[in-house]
Design a protein that fits this description.
Blueprint lengths: L19 H8 L9 H6 L16 H15 L3 E6 L16 H4 L5 E8 L14 H19 L4 E4 L4 H7 L4 E2 L5 E2 L7 E3 L2 E4 L7 E2 L2
Parallel strand pairs: 1-8
Antiparallel strand pairs: 1-2, 2-6, 2-7, 3-7, 4-5
Helix pairs in contact: 3-5
């Protein structure tokens, strides 16, 4: 009885290993940032908060809807963290809102993460930045949807994004300060954090 050729997957060569075009795609930063989708999304202005709040379900059901939409948009992992009072106030004015509304408390953080085959921190090429691009798209659309419901939501990069991801139940922080997830290890990129006053059920408490 013949058996097909025995293949040892870990001995296979990476088909891109000696491809200079692939290396350029992953590791060479663009000469003009206007050639990147990431800059287009970063520079897109936030829309206004709809003046009338929508009728929503319980925080638990609303949270499930937020997570379902995030996954639909491409998030591999999504969780919700409760922010401490000192971090829950929006730091920048919301377009179209007066100062009182702009300083309103936003006690919840929606945290989305996408799988990253290449670490965007060490792979500055257009291809290496694909996880960043995907994360920006997810957080932009998700925060826009929340504003359309009549609630504040602003998405922004956060130096504590991985810690917030751990607080939202996505994984743990290792000795190097990196987020480690059960599904993908450290091969994930945490998108811009969405701070919102939409009533949600947190998965954990931010430290």
């Amino acid at each position: 009885m013949r058996v097909g050729p025995f293949k040892i997957p870990w001995l296979r060569r990476d088909p891109h290993e000696s491809d200079p075009y692939w290396d350029f795609f992953i590791n060479t930063a663009p000469a003009d940032l206007a050639n990147t989708v990431t800059e287009m999304i970063r520079n897109a202005p936030e829309g206004n908060v709809f003046p009338t709040k929508a009728d929503i379900h319980t925080p638990e059901i609303t949270s499930s809807h937020v997570k379902e939409l995030a996954r639909y948009l491409g998030a591999n992992l999504v969780g919700i963290a409760q922010l401490p009072t000192s971090e829950s106030r929006l730091s920048a004015p919301i377009r179209g809102q007066d100062n009182k509304e702009a300083s309103e408390q936003c006690p919840y953080a929606v945290v989305c993460a996408v799988r990253a085959e290449f670490d965007p921190r060490t792979s500055p090429g257009i291809g290496g930045q694909v996880p960043v691009q995907n994360g920006l798209f997810i957080s932009f659309v998700l925060s826009a949807w929340i504003r359309e419901l009549g609630y504040h939501a602003t998405a922004a990069a956060d130096t504590n994004a991985e810690q917030l991801a751990a607080a939202a139940g996505l994984g743990t922080i290792n000795a190097a300060g990196r987020l480690v997830t059960p599904q993908y290890g450290t091969a994930v990129h945490v998108a811009n954090i969405i701070r919102t006053d939409l009533p949600l059920a947190p998965d954990g408490l931010a430290a």
